[in-house]
Amino acid sequence: MRTIFKQEIEQLGNDLIAMAKDTSTAISAAATALEQADLDLAQRVIDADKRIDESQRSVDEQAVSLLARQAPVASDLRVVVTALRLSSTIERMGDLARHVADVARGRYPETALSGRSHEVVLKMAQQAAKVAEQVVRLLEDNDLDLAASIEHDDEIIDAMHRQTFELVLDENEPLTRQEVVDLVLLGRYLERFGDHGVSVARRISYLVTGDLTNAVVEVPEV
Amino acid sequence: MRTIFKQEIEQLGNDLIAMAKDTSTAISAAATALEQADLDLAQRVIDADKRIDESQRSVDEQAVSLLARQAPVASDLRVVVTALRLSSTIERMGDLARHVADVARGRYPETALSGRSHEVVLKMAQQAAKVAEQVVRLLEDNDLDLAASIEHDDEIIDAMHRQTFELVLDENEPLTRQEVVDLVLLGRYLERFGDHGVSVARRISYLVTGDLTNAVVEVPEV
Questions:
Q1: What positions does the domain PhoU occupy (chains A, B) (predicted)?
Q2: From B92, which residue of chain A is nearest by alpha-carbon distance?
């Protein structure tokens, strides 16, 4: 019984890692699609989101089936419930990568932004891609240095998010209405992407350090 | 054992209803704060979000404790896992109500918007408040007519959301940069609020109609 449980938990972990890898690929490709106005790449990100949604469905079904058949308690239970939370958070990161790609696709053959606003958003997107890549490694290795690094990188995203507001609110900054809209929405999507990365990092930290209640109850918005 | 389980499930349901009521109060007050540039009311919404966060923590702890002690299976298990999902969704609605109140507070003593954009956003906020109120009643009564009505009202929110884009993209519409930013963000917050209402409605529908897998696995973004 115990061995089967361990195998199933391992499968769940591997599926979450695969989901996180798909999400990492998606945000990284969305960043490039934004940078280069690459329509094919944007479309691939949009199409690939379905696979992330399906992975979440599969993880959730496995987790619930595991709860039903194995009735885990204590730390085992919290690991399974945390897997449910993580699948939801990672799926949301996939949605946000898709939203970024949607903007790139919508402005093709132009880039969505230009000049300083293009630069800031690209840096934000690249930083978000860095967060996603670290989320994958954190799920693989449970290395808490990565959790700290994700929190740090999210602060950088937040600082760049504030820069986007300075840019849009500067009436001397030459921006069309469409550019203002895109800058505000891309800023919001990428800031939320970073927040979700922090949420994953905190849950894993709690699990690893044995703070099991915090691993499972909702992490407040960061 | 069974009686205790039923009592605990009932408690979980009551706590979710209380959370949904707090969220309904919050979005309704946020709408009024936007309309009337009411600083005190905006501040009350912001402060009250902590209580919603605490309620979520409590619901999540109860649900996990219930899983650990009662090891429910089949439909009972799915009810508990659905409660975990609903608490997360309703908490997020609370956050979005707070974000709306944040904008109202930030523009005091002025209203955030004026003219046509003020009107559209107020209608969206009132429609979001209607969704929240129906979510409360749906949780109380499991009346599937309400679920259909929530889906319908969310479509109205989406249509108004499209109107906000028409307004901001019309270069002849006299809007400051700050107004464009506020219109885009308020539109996004309220559109997401409606989506989360639909997510609650679908989960409850699935539970009531016996489509238990769909009740528990993540509902795709609507």
A1: 18-102, 122-204
A2: A221
Spell out the domains of chain B, with CATH numbers in brackets.
2-216 (1.20.58.220)
* Contact assessment for residue A31 and residue A119, using Cβ atoms and an 8 Å cutoff: no
* Cα distances (angstroms) measured from residue A160 to each of A114, A142, A153, A186, B88: 16, 28, 11, 12, 28
Separation of alpha carbons A193 and A149, rounded Å: 15
Pick the residue from chain A with its C-alpha nearest to B86.
A218
Asked whether the beta carbons of residue A71 and residue B71 sit closer than 8 angstroms, the reply is: yes
A79 contacts A142 by C-beta, under 8 angstroms: no
How do residues A72-93 score in pLDDT, each as one tens digit? 999 999 999 999 999 999 999 9
In angstroms, the CA B71 to CA B92 distance is: 28
Chain B residues with CB within 8 Å of chain A CB: 53, 56-57, 60-61, 64, 67-68, 71, 73-74, 77-78, 81, 84-85, 87-88, 91, 95, 165, 168-171, 176-178, 180-181, 184-185, 188, 213, 216-218, 220-221
